[in-house]
Specification:
713 residues; alpha+beta; four-stranded antiparallel beta sheet
């Protein structure tokens, strides 16, 4: 180690150039590193989605789930497999062990799904495989509204979707309230009869139309010509001009016997924002992309496209996570700066201005080196990283303080600053290394923390390991090099050194001030080691007893004011979309009565594309709260919503607020299993009644299938 220090101090310009380049690269990494609110946790869950239009839950369980489960259960590393059958399809959820190889797991699942497809009904759509990733959830919702026809609004939404998805950082855009267009053909029976046609002629004709005919080419010997058969229908006019029947020179076209009009498929969902009908675009970013820059690009794209819209079409933004992240990053950065300033005040007071500045360089230097390492590892800047930087602020200057203080003492004794800092770095190298290594050893086991929580919290030890390792370089290489150029005695002076040398010979009375008091206290403690150890052990036991008596318990993440929440409306029964919308609209109306607490109220009725939603959820209302300083506590708002909706018959209102930290789900989860599935609904109902009688439970949900009509043949 001494040889490395001699080499560094003998090549001052090279070392300082390396320091400058490292800090510049670290600053660039800090500016460009992806910024997120929560760490990008790799959740070990995949699910296979199977769609079969009109299939019953019982048939889906028998014909879709069982063949798929037979193949998927053989995949290595699967911790748990769950399946759900519902009207129109089924899904199989695979939970792997945390820390799994996502790419290999995807390959294994895809291979088994390909094998199982042979056993699925031919009418079943192609099974799709999805990963569960927190970063894929929408980071921004763009709302389009205005007094224009629905077709115009949908056209604008689809064009805007294409523009937003062209942004490299955007993964996908889902349109809420979107309806597929369709063409309705209304046949006139009297005209059909007058042309001597039958219904089978028309239906058979329609099935044979709109097909691509690969007619090939004709080689005449003097040329080669492709043959084009225009069989693809692209416009309504193409449908109206289709020939239905030919008789001699006459041709009966579809327009002769039917009227055609453009329309939409029946809606499967309805969307409203703040009580007004709207179409929404939910924007998801790619994993690892900077969320702030991504949302800025989306906003610019919307503003560019707005110039081509009608004047009465407006666009608004909600659930903008970049505002929260900017605020959080700003607050935490201010806390880091405040911590640095306070540490600098203490150091300058203890060592003097020049020595204090040398020690202070270790703080931003270690931070920027650590951030450079995180960026090189492909990590992001998030709340756990910033909390880790605050935690490391006081620890990463210890080594620099030891080296600078020792050099101060040697300079006060008469050594030149180059010799003093060289000697300080060499003599203090192993103590500094040992001190840093013990701190790193305390956090190193956290790197191997298992489970989803471990994936979330690994940023804490990684950040500390990087910054503290960087502080070791600062203390033993860069700070001594700078000190050899600009250092001079700081707090140390000949008089204090003289008093210290006297005290080493046994006379403690000559020491004055805090140093003398501390030295005399330490001398007494060293003379009574048994009492000191017993006192420390008693203090340890007393602290545990006092916390057990007066403490408030233990929780992983504190319960803070949420920024967002979702109100799920549960109702049993097969309701039409209009019935669902009526109920959701009534709940929405009562929620809007507390509008002073929300920035945005986004209601959806019908099919809810939320994997966590239960089978009996008929609608969801997303709430975006105002700043916590401008409203009542969220718990009071939730209580009022439950009270105001309690009199609506036949529904249950469940409120889920935004979770802080890794997703852990609800505090209580019960799983019931039986060889006879028919026994489960009654058992679930019995358990729910028991929990209600016991009391203390709210927001209960279950995944019992919706009752349907069964035909007996």
């Amino acid at each position: 180690m001494n040889g490395l220090i001699d080499i560094a101090l003998g090549r001052t310009r090279t070392v300082l150039l390396c320091l400058f380049l490292t800090l510049t690269a670290g600053l660039y990494a800090y500016i460009t590193i992806p910024k997120e609110s929560s760490p990008d946790v790799n959740i070990p869950i995949m699910y296979v989605l199977m769609t079969h239009q009109g299939i019953s839950p019982e048939d889906a369980e028998r014909m879709l789930i069982r063949p798929m489960e037979r193949e998927l259960r053989t995949i290595e590393g699967v911790k748990e497999m769950r399946a759900t059958a519902y009207e129109g399809g089924a899904n199989v959820i695979l939970e792997f062990d945390a820390g799994f190889d996502a790419d290999k797991a995807m390959e294994d699942v895809r291979a088994k799904v390909d094998i199982a497809k042979a056993d699925l009904p031919t009418e079943t759509d192609e099974p799709s495989i999805h990963e569960v990733n927190v970063s894929l959830f929408p980071v921004l919702v763009v709302t389009l509204s205005g007094a224009v026809p629905e077709r115009t609004l949908l056209k604008i939404a689809r064009e805007l979707k294409d523009e937003i998805e062209a942004i490299p950082a955007v993964l996908e855009v889902n349109i809420g309230g979107n309806r597929e267009e369709q063409v309705e053909i209304v046949v006139d029976p009297s005209r059909v009869e007058s042309y001597n046609l039958v219904a089978q002629d028309i239906t058979g004709f329609m099935t044979r139309s709109n097909k691509l005919v690969a007619a090939g080419t004709i080689d005449t010997g003097k040329g080669r010509f492709p043959i084009k058969v225009p069989g693809i229908i692209e416009t309504v006019q193409d449908i109206m001009s289709l020939p239905v029947k030919a008789s001699g020179d006459g041709v009966i076209r579809l327009s002769d016997i039917a009227s055609i009009r453009k329309g939409f498929k029946d809606p499967t969902s309805v969307a409203r924002v703040n009580g007004q009908p709207a179409i929404t675009l939910e924007v998801s970013k790619r994993t690892g992309e900077n969320i702030i820059e991504t949302i800025d690009h989306v906003r610019k794209a919307v503003e560019t496209e707005r110039a081509y819209w009608p004047d009465n079409v407006t666009a608004s933004f909600s659930q903008d996570q970049s505002d929260d992240i900017r605020s959080m990053l700003s607050d935490l950065q201010n806390n880091v700066i405040a911590a640095i300033v306070l540490v600098m005040v203490v150091i300058v007071a203890a060592l003097g201005p020049r020595s204090g500045m040398l020690v202070g360089i270790a703080i931003p230097g270690s931070f920027l080196m650590g951030i450079l390492a995180l960026s090189a590892m492909g990590q992001s800047m998030n709340l756990v990283v910033l909390f880790s930087l605050i935690l490391a602020t006081g620890m990463l200057v210890d080594g620099a303080i030891i080296v600078v203080e020792y050099a101060d003492r040697k300079m006060a004794e008469g050594l030149h600053r180059t010799q003093a800092y060289t000697l300080a770095a060499q003599r203090m190298a192993w103590p500094v290394i040992a001190s840093t290594a013990t701190t790193l050893a305390a956090f190193l086991p956290m790197v191997f923390w298992t489970g989803v929580v471990g994936e979330f919290m690994k940023y804490l030890p990684i950040t500390l390991l990087m910054t503290l390792s960087a502080s070791l370089l600062m203390a033993l290489i860069f700070v001594p090099t700078l000190g050899a150029l600009i250092g001079r005695p700081g707090a140390a002076d000949p008089d204090s050194l003289k008093s210290l040398s006297i005290s080493e010979e046994g006379d403690l009375t000559s020491l004055k001030g805090w140093t003398g008091a501390y030295t005399r206290l330490l001398n007494r403690a060293l003379n009574r080691p048994g009492w000191v150890v017993a006192g420390a052990f008693a203090l340890l036991i007393a602290s545990q007893v006092l916390y057990a008596t007066f403490g408030r318990g233990v929780e992983f993440f504190p319960d803070i004011e949420p920024k967002q929440a979702v109100v799920y409306i549960h109702a049993r029964g097969n309701m039409a979309i209009a019935e669902r919308d009526t109920i959701v609209h009534e709940v929405e109306r009562r929620v809007l009565e507390f509008g002073d607490a929300f920035d945005t109220v986004y209601a959806r009725a019908g099919e809810i594309s939320d994997r966590e939603a239960a089978e009996d959820v008929i609608g969801a209302i997303s709430l975006e709260f105002k700043d916590w300083q401008l409203r009542r506590p969220a718990s009071a708002v939730f209580a009022d919503i439950r009270a105001r909706t309690a009199d609506i018959a036949g529904i249950d209102v469940e409120i889920r607020k935004q979770e802080e930290g890794p997703p852990v789900g609800k505090p209580v989860a019960l799983q019931l299993a039986s060889r006879d599935p028919k026994l489960l609904p009654a058992a679930v109902a019995h358990v729910r009644r028991g929990m209600m009688e016991l009391g203390g439970f709210i927001d209960m949900e279950d995944n019992r299938p919706i009752p349907g009509i069964q035909w007996e043949l």
